[in-house]
Amino acid sequence: MRGSVNFAKIGSVPNRGDRWNVWQDPMMHDPLIKVRKVEPLGGFRLRFIFSDGAVGECDFAQLIARSDPMLEPLKDPAYFARVFLEFGAPTWPNGYDMAPHALYEELAQNNALRQPVAQR
């Protein structure tokens, strides 16, 4: 029997016109997004420039307030300011890092992400 396989439909169906098309949730941005530049702004605030040119700022005071051994060193603003990029992810000397695509999503959902202005 040709075409007898019955797959249950779960969620949206990918574009059938292109079988090589990798389907992504339309709310999900590119999972390959990286942070191109990170700047400490004082306290627990950071500014990010992403690989697509978008810019966002975030205050991590609530994250730092959590009780977690990996976050303890970051509670010192001077240590927090030692953030650097490793493979496009904001990282601290103790090994704590953030997933760039999750950070991008969070900023986008909170309307804290500015898209680059198109060049003419």
Number of strands: 6
| Number of helices in the DSSP assignment | 3
Q: Which CATH class of the domain at 35-114 applies here?
A: Alpha Beta
Oligomerization category of the chains in this entry: single chain
Beta-strand percentage?
Answer: 15-25%
Within CATH, the superfamily of the domain at 35-114 carries the name: NE0471-like N-terminal domain
The main sheet comes to: 4 strands, antiparallel
Choose one word for the global shape. globular
Structural class determined from secondary elements: alpha+beta
- Low-confidence stretches are 4-28
How would you describe this protein?
This protein has 120 residues and is of the alpha+beta class. The protein has a domain at 35-114: NE0471 N-terminal domain-like (2-Layer Sandwich). The chain is 15% helix and 22% strand. It is built from three helices and six strands, in the order βββααββαβ. It has helices at 61-64, 77-80, 100-109, and strands spanning 35-42, 45-50, 55-59, 84-86, 89-91, 113-114. A four-stranded antiparallel sheet has the order 1-2-3-6. Strands 4-5 form a two-stranded antiparallel ribbon. The longest helix is centred in the last third of the chain and has 10 residues, at 100-109. The protein is globular and about 40 Å long. The relative contact order is 0.17. Residues 4-28 have low confidence and may be disordered.
Give me the secondary-structure topology:
Layout: E1 35-42, E2 45-50, E3 55-59, H1 61-64, H2 77-80, E4 84-86, E5 89-91, H3 100-109, E6 113-114
Antiparallel strand pairs: 1-2, 2-3, 3-6, 4-5
